[in-house]
Write a structure and sequence with these properties.
five-stranded antiparallel beta sheet; extracellular matrix; mainly beta; six-stranded antiparallel beta sheet; extended; 521 residues; 10% helix; single chain; developmental protein; differentiation
C-alpha cells in the first residue's frame, strides 16, 4: 500500500502543476464566449473581441472600415446585404434577373435593389408572381401584361418609374427629376433613366466614403490637374468649381492669356496723343509771340494715380517730335476722354482771330466697384457660423453656371441661413448701388432679407417672387456716420415644404441706383 500511495501523490502533483500552467497561459489568450457575439474572455476579464467595439449601450458592436451601404455589419469588415444588393460594402445592385433559376416565369426587369416580373401578351400576372393564360388579357393587348382587379382587366407597368399612357396599354417613362419624386440629396444631381433614376454628384464634386457614409466632396481640379487654365494662368480651387487668373504680365479670361505689350505697361496720358485730324479740340498755334506755358487741368495719370506735372514747354517745342510718331502709332491711340476742357487762362495767349471750338463728348460711365457673382466674382463671401443652416451651391438650367440657394426641404420654421458679403475699403468710401438677382419660389417657402452688418431690421425683404423666373433688385446703400462693414443676405425658413430661395449676380457700383428712388440708410 505504501508504494501505491506514493505513486498516487506524484500523479496529483503533476496534474495540479500542469493545470496551473494552463491557466497561466489562458490569461493572455482570447477565448470566445457563447453568450454574447463579439465578447471574448481574457483570463478572468470579459471584453470586446478584436474588430468589435463597445457601443453606448455597453454591447460589443462589429466594425466595418468602409461601412455597409445597404446592409449591416455582422463581423469585422463583414457585411450582410439587404435583399437586392451585393458587394463587399453592399453598395452594388444585385441583378436578380440574371440568377438561376430565374425568379420570373416570363419576363424580368431589374431595378435598383429589387426586380419586377411581368407576363407576355395574352397572360395575366398572378398574386404569386406566376403568369396565367388569359384570353381576356390577350384581347386587351397590354404591352407588359395585365392583372384582374375586381373582375376588370387592367394593364400593368413593370416599374414604379413607368405609367400607363393615354391608350391605357403601353407604358411611358416618368421623369422623376422633373416631377420632383426623386429622393436625391440636395448636393446631388438627378439623372433620369427609363423606368427609374439615379443620383450623381454635381459637377466639381466626387463621391467618397467619409465618416461612415458616402458623400459628395469638393473635387480639387487644381491639385488633380484636370483644369483647363492657360499655361500663363494660376488655378484657384473653389467649392464645386475652380477659377483661372492670368499671371502678372498677361491678360485674358484665365483660359486664354496673352502677353501685355510693353507699351501698355508704362505710364500714359488718358486721351492719347493729340491728332489734328481726328480730335478737333486742339488749341491752334497763335500768330503772336507765345506766352509762357500755363499748367492745365492735370490729366497726367498712371492708371488711376496722378503722377505729377510734367515739364512744361512752349506749344511749338512739343509738337514737332510727336508728328513723326503719329503715323506709326495711329492705330494704337486711346480714345480721348470726354472731360477735357480749355482753361480760361489760355484765352489771353491766343490772338483775337483765334476761334476756340467746343466739342461735346458723351458722359463718362459710372465708376464700377466690384463684381460679386458666384462664378467669376472677386468678392469675399462668408457663411455665418451662428445661423441654423447654410446656403448651398445650385446650378442653373444650362448646367454651366451656378448660384447660391436655400432649399425649402431643409430646416424648420423660423430657421435662418446667413451669407455675408464683406465690403472692401473702396465700397466704404461713399454710397453705392447694390444690384442682385433673386427668386423665392414655393408656397410659404420663406423670405429673403437684406441687412447691414449685425442689424436685426432688414433694409429689404421679399417673401415671394412675382414670377417663377429670376427678378432683379436695385438698392441704394448710403450712410450718415459709420460705413457698413458687410451686407448680409438672410434666408428665413417658412412653413411650406419644397421650393427654393435663390441669389445670384451680386454687384456693387458707385453712386445711387438709377432705378431706385429711396436710398437705404
Amino acid at each position: 500500500m505504501q508504494p501505491f500511495s506514493l505513486v498516487w501523490a506524484l500523479l496529483v502533483l503533476i496534474s495540479v502543476s500542469c493545470g496551473g500552467a494552463d491557466a497561466h497561459s489562458r490569461h493572455y489568450r482570447q477565448v470566445l464566449t457563447g453568450n454574447q457575439p463579439g465578447v471574448c474572455r481574457y483570463g478572468s476579464r470579459l471584453e470586446c473581441c478584436y474588430g468589435w467595439r463597445k457601443n453606448s449601450k455597453g454591447q460589443c458592436e462589429a466594425q466595418c472600415e468602409h461601412g455597409c451601404k445597404h446592409g449591416e455589419c455582422v463581423g469585422p469588415n463583414k457585411c450582410k446585404c439587404l435583399p437586392g444588393y451585393t458587394g463587399k460594402t453592399c453598395n452594388q445592385d444585385l441583378n436578380e434577373c440574371g440568377l438561376k433559376p430565374r425568379p420570373c416565369e416570363h419576363r424580368c426587369m431589374n431595378t435598383y435593389g429589387a426586380y419586377k416580373c411581368y407576363c407576355l401578351n395574352g397572360y395575366m400576372l398572378m398574386p404569386d408572381g406566376s403568369c396565367a393564360n388569359s384570353r381576356t388579357c390577350s384581347l386587351a393587348h397590354c404591352q407588359y401584361g395585365c392583372e384582374e382587379v375586381q373582375g376588370e382587366i387592367r394593364c400593368l407597368c413593370p416599374s414604379p418609374g413607368l405609367q400607363l399612357g393615354q391608350d391605357e396599354r403601353t407604358c411611358v417613362d416618368i421623369d422623376e427629376c422633373v416631377t420632383g419624386k426623386n429622393l436625391c440629396p440636395y448636393n446631388r444631381q438627378c439623372v433620369n433613366t427609363f423606368g427609374s433614376y439615379y443620383c450623381k454628384c454635381q459637377d466639381g464634386y466626387d463621391l467618397k466614403y467619409v465618416d461612415g457614409k458616402y458623400d459628395c466632396v469638393d473635387l480639387d481640379e487644381c491639385a488633380a490637374a484636370v483644369h483647363k487654365c492657360s499655361h500663363h494662368a494660376v488655378c484657384l480651387n473653389t467649392q464645386g468649381s475652380h477659377r483661372c487668373r492670368c499671371k502678372a504680365g498677361f491678360r485674358g479670361n484665365g483660359f486664354e492669356c496673352s502677353a501685355i505689350p510693353d507699351s501698355q505697361l508704362g505710364p500714359r496720358i488718358l486721351g492719347g496723343k493729340p491728332d489734328n485730324e481726328d480730335i478737333k479740340n486742339i488749341i491752334p498755334e497763335p500768330n503772336t509771340t507765345p506766352a509762357p506755358g500755363i499748367r492745365q487741368q492735370p490729366f497726367d495719370y498712371d492708371g488711376e494715380v496722378y503722377v505729377g506735372t510734367r515739364t512744361e514747354e512752349g506749344p511749338r517745342a512739343e509738337f514737332p517730335e510727336e508728328e513723326e510718331e503719329e503715323e506709326e502709332d495711329e492705330d494704337n491711340q486711346l480714345n480721348p476722354r470726354g472731360d477735357v476742357f480749355i482753361s480760361e487762362d489760355f484765352e489771353s495767349a491766343l490772338s483775337p482771330g483765334t476761334e476756340i471750338k467746343e466739342v461735346h463728348f458723351g458722359s463718362v460711365q459710372e465708376d464700377f466697384i466690384v463684381d460679386c457673382n458666384f462664378d467669376q466674382g472677386a468678392c469675399e463671401w462668408v457663411q455665418d457660423r451662428a445661423d441654423d443652416m447654410d446656403w448651398s451651391v445650385a446650378y442653373h438650367d444650362n448646367g454651366a453656371e451656378y448660384y447660391m440657394a436655400v432649399s425649402g426641404l431643409l430646416g424648420q420654421q423660423e430657421d435662418v441661413a446667413k451669407l455675408k458679403l464683406l465690403l472692401n475699403d473702396r465700397a466704404q468710401q461713399g454710397s453705392f448701388c447694390l444690384t442682385f438677382d433673386y427668386r423665392v419660389v414655393g408656397h410659404n417657402v420663406g423670405a429673403l432679407r437684406v441687412l447691414l452688418d449685425n442689424s436685426v431690421y432688414p433694409v429689404w425683404e421679399q417673401s415671394h417672387s412675382r414670377a417663377q423666373s429670376w427678378q432683379t433688385e436695385f438698392l441704394t446703400v448710403a450712410w450718415k456716420e459709420k460705413a457698413p462693414q458687410s451686407i448680409v443676405f438672410e434666408a428665413l425658413r417658412g412653413t411650406g415644404v419644397g421650393g427654393e430661395i435663390g441669389l445670384d449676380n451680386v454687384a456693387l457700383t458707385s453712386g445711387p441706383c438709377k432705378e431706385d428712388v429711396s436710398p437705404v440708410f
